[in-house]
Give the backbone structure.
Amino acid sequence: MEIKFCTTCGSPTLLKIPPEDDHVRSVCSVCGLVHYNNPKMVVGCIPQWQGKILLCKRNIEPRSGKWTLPAGYLENGESVQAGAVRETREEALADVRIINPYRLFNILFVDQIYFMFRAAMTSDQFGPTTESSEVRLFDEKDIPWDKIAFEVIRQTLEHYFSDRKKGRYPFRIFDLA
Ligand SMILES: [Zn+2]
């Protein structure tokens, strides 16, 4: 996304490649400040409880009404693990303990990185929130595969159930393009 106005002096920016750089940047036409626009990281988890996993029905666009895993943007000053725990509390009112890093997806066409953990719920408490109209534990056979909100979440779930059959959950990196 282009940054149209300087974040320091408010003047219009120009798109150009600064000296000794190799990417086009938004450069302030007055003070010369170079604005770097880098990918955003989304962190989340697969919360498990007694063989079931917790999904959230989205109450917000995009994909309102579809099911997803708790995940959201990492905040400044926050570790990826803490971000995944926080998002799970915010979206599902569930407390989790991180088990291991599980999947990293480079989603190049939207400049996002999804970092998904496996996590254990520390109790059977969960519930709806402003972001999730419904929160439910699912057995594998009941997963609403035709109503999953995002391809990255579908792949995370498919990998998880495939790995579960093998009893091993290696960390792996994929590109979505
Ligand atoms: Zn400026």
Observations:
- Residues 40-176 form a domain with the Nucleoside Triphosphate Pyrophosphohydrolase fold (CATH 3.90.79.10).
- The chain has a mean pLDDT of 97.
- The chain has two domains: 1-37, 40-176.
- DSSP finds two helices and eleven strands in the chain.
